[in-house]
Amino acid sequence: MSEHVLELQNLTMQFGGVVAVDDLSMYVDKGEIIALIGPNGAGKTTAFNMITGVYAPTNGAIFFNGEQIISNHPQGNMKKLYQGGSAGKFPNVMVKLPDVITKLGIARTFQNIRLFKDLTVFENVLIAKHMRSKAGVFAATFRLNAKEERAMRAETMRLLEILELADLRNETASNLPYGKQRRLEIARALATEPSLLLLDEPAAGMNPQETAELTAFIKQIRDDFKLTVFMIEHHMDLVMEISDRIYVLDFGKLIAAGTPDEVQNNQRVIDAYLGVADDA
Ligand SMILES: Nc1ncnc2c1ncn2[C@@H]1O[C@H](COP(=O)(O)OP(=O)(O)OP(=O)(O)O)[C@@H](O)[C@H]1O
């Protein structure tokens, strides 16, 4: 049994003959900010998609707080096609859908911002809150539980205040400046009360000023919400400043892991990635 908040064991994701993630093993500990980096197409988002139940891995297992939550081995046609490692190591099959993963306490944001663009800031966060509620969105829609609904509205307001979005609560999401949309996306993730927050390129499209603000913001929410943060990011300034440890993927394979100093000085990483990263 693992004691890590998140542990991936020999994860492989194969799309037909394409091995997107190849035998990836790694862990994230409580309170850490961990970055997953690598060139375009290295398999980073695919790794997030396996952790959050979007894809069932072709092989391997995922543990959350020491408990196995996902496990699989090549099945059907994939038995012949399989090119990853560690075949035969994971006999049991355990699959979970994204909403179940969310309820366990793992939340994520996406590379392309996914908000309800025509709804207000408040409504966007309130809907995310319902994801975690016992009564669910159905009950909320038909006002089946007025007391719970009131509590959720109050919690939504409190969250917006902490994240400095309260003044914008009645603004339509699509009218927000880009940096605030990203912040709202993170607010939506936090509304589901996660203990582990996955951020997929949170600084994508941001200018240096917005990136610097985001760096401080991620540290702040890690502390305020007692989170563990696992993020994919191309902005090396942000990654090097904020990360406790960094994992580097290249063509689906883990090529390095270590502190920012260790990774920056790793020749394999320099060859594979860092030389081009700042242009990304
Ligand atoms: N649903 C899918 N079907 C087929 N191939 C896929 C699918 N999703 C991802 N891939 C392939 O898997 C590989 C890894 O893609 P992925 O998006 O995980 O990389 P990435 O490291 O997140 O890249 P980027 O930094 O550009 O976002 C790529 O070759 C991609 O084309």
TrEMBL record:
Protein name: ABC transporter ATP-binding protein
Single GO biological process annotation from the record: L-valine import across plasma membrane
Organism: Anaerotruncus massiliensis (ex Liu et al. 2021)
Keyword Hydrolase found: no
An MF annotation (GO) of this entry: L-valine transmembrane transporter activity
Keywords: ATP-binding, Nucleotide-binding, Transport
SUPFAM superfamilies: P-loop containing nucleoside triphosphate hydrolases (SSF52540)
One GO cellular component, as annotated: plasma membrane
Domain ABC transporter: 6-276
Pfam families per UniProt: ABC_tran (PF00005), BCA_ABC_TP_C (PF12399)
PROSITE patterns for the chain: ABC_TRANSPORTER_2
Transmembrane segments: none
CDD domains to which the protein is assigned, alphabetical: ABC_Mj1267_LivG_branched
